[in-house]
Amino acid sequence: MRALTIVLRWHRSAVPLLRPRTRSIVVHRRRGLGKATGIDFNRSTSMRLRLIRNATLKLDVAGRTILIDPFFAPKHSRPPFAGRSRNPLVDLPAGTDEILDGVDLVIVSHLHADHFDPVAQSLVPKHLPLISQPGNDDKIRSFGFGDVTPLVDSIDWHGIKLTRRDGRHGFGAVVEKMGPVIGFTIEAPDEPSLYWSGDTVLYPAVEETIRSSRPDIIVIHPCGALWEGEPIAMDAEQAVAVCNAAPQASVVATHLDSLDHATVSRADLRNHALARGISPTQLLIPDDGQLLEFSGATAARHTHPA
Fold this sequence. Notes:
By secondary structure, the protein is of the alpha/beta class. Helices cover about 15% and strands about 30% of the residues. Helix 6 crosses helix 7 (about 265-275).
């Protein structure tokens, strides 16, 4: 069985991300159980996930640091999506030098400006290996990046297996306007497995990924974003459905409170989840800059009579 210890850390805005003053909550979650439980571990590892802002994550796994969908635009420096406010709605929680410090690999799921904006295209070091959605690799090379690999199926990078997972950026006709997107799973020895769903609604391919891969951690974007009145991302009810589909998993909600076309806030999501019986120990809703630590373990196997 797989178990997880989750440590949530809150950062004061004036404190650098890499050296936080923190208070921590430790939660043990065991595969196959829908509630918190204490477990004695034979061995443990630590995956660290830090939400930067929007979909941008900094992930430490198997001794490597991965930066996902860098979006570095200053507050209100980009046009509105829904006509309510210029974007992004909030500043980054730390400087870009600090965010980029120690990064070994960059993943860009698609080329929408809130996932790889011109500021990030300029500031991310061009020598870093970058994994992209198939079809975006030539465009990213045109930005000056020399080591770009499309995630066609699976890639083994320093013992970390990244597998492409399908996504759909909406329903109906809006999908063509949004263009293709991908998610991915990450697996490494003695580490929790992670499914990053990306900019997708909940539809059969996502449900099948959850069923077949049984990830320990699922990262979703339940901001309820709309484009021309049509949904293009998960909403609060779909987040609840993900939690119910994967009671063994810790579900992490990101892409919240940062863009003007979102219809679900962090508070909305928490209130809706609580009303539907989803525990805060399963559905994690980090603030920008917050660090989550997942310590995976292989617990002792128990043999039961037939």
